[in-house]
Amino acid sequence: MDKKLNTIWTSQSTKYIAIMILTSVLWSSGGILIKLVNVGPLAVSGLRSLIAAAIIFIYLKKPKFTWSLYQVLGAVAYASMAITFVAATRLTTSANAVLLQYTAPIYVAILGGVILKEKVALKDWITIAVTLIGVGLFFVDSFGFGGLMGNVLAIISGFCFALFIVCSRQQKEGSPMETILLGNIVTAVACMPFVVSADYDMTSIVGIISLGIIQFGIPYVLYGIAIKHIRALDAVMIAVIEPILNPVWVLIFWGEKPGSWAILGGIIVLAAVTYNCIQSAANKA
Questions:
Q1: 13-21 average pLDDT score
Q2: What's the rounded Cα separation, in Å, for the pair 111 and 126?
Q3: DSSP string, the chain
Q4: pLDDT digits (tens, 9 = 90+) for 185-205
Q5: Angle at 95 between CA 215 and CA 253, to 5 degrees
Q6: Cβ atoms of residues 186 and 78 within 8 Å
Q7: Residue 74: exposure state from Cβ atoms within 10 A (0-12, 13-18, ≥19)
Q8: Which of 282, 271, 16 lies closest to 130, judged by CA?
Q9: What global pTM score does this model have?
């Protein structure tokens, strides 16, 4: 296996794997930055996407919208993912929100097989089954309505994340970046009533600007580059770096600790997905 992994890291695909890894690290800043913002989740989503749309527009210079089914569907999925994730982070712990969002490989495996015709191996389905066991443990700690609703919204966000990735990958011969731009525009427009009616303090302003640039704008430009060259399932499994780091930043800077059952569930989810990612890399070599 060592020889196979060495071959992977000396191949031309290395830079796209590295880009996806960097993307995930930047995504992981979302938990702590969202906690800094003292306004409603829809206002946060709208302003964050408005800033990210400006960055992506500058990168594209002259975006070309095809208005195809997958471009529009991907944009709607992106907007839904963004809004439900912010709401979930407010209603449950950051660890629960981000780890439950990473039920996405389950949906990517199913949608990718149907839409993209990308083969899903037996080991992928085993990973999915183990992941579901881990996800179930999150609900042991959720006795209150708020925690339960946060967990449900996080799972919905995971499905939307998966649909967005599949729609992006389906446009690999074109430019999935326009889907990301359109998704941010849809989010900003949908949330604009909440944006203009919210009251902002200086900490919230700094937090939202940071979210727009560090957690959304730059990483989604990087994601748009990487997704054209790696499988949808590989992309979402490499992105497992985000749920590893997200609660770490929140624990260090915010002092928020997830419940013991959630930690156990998270370990199961991350172990299963990481193992599958290593096996996929070895098999490609």
A1: 81
A2: 17
A3: -HHHHHHHHTSTTHHHHHHHHHHHHHHTTHHHHHHH--S-HHHHHHHHHHHHHHHHHHHHSS------HHHHHHHHHHHHHHHHHHHHHHHS-HHHHHHHHTTHHHHHHHHIIIII-----HHHHHHHHHHHHHHHHHGGG--SHHHHHHHHHHHHHHHHHHHHHHHHHHTTTS-THHHHHHHHHHHHHHHHHHHHH----HHHHHHHHHIIIIIIIHHHHHHHHHTTTS-HHHHHHHTTHHHHHHHHHHHHHH-----HHHHHHHHHHHHHHHHHHHHHHHHH-
A4: 999 999 999 999 999 999 999
A5: 65
A6: yes
A7: buried
A8: 271
A9: 0.78
Instruction: Say if residue 248 is exposed, middle or buried (CB neighbours under 10 Å; 0-12, 13-18, 19+).
Output: middle
Token pair for 282: 């070895």
Please give the structure tokens belonging to residue 268. 């199961």
Residue of 116, 90, 113, 88 whose CA lies nearest to 102: 88
Q: How far apart are the C-alpha atoms of 264 and 205, rounded to whole Å?
A: 35
Q: Is residue 241 predicted with pLDDT exceeding 90?
A: no
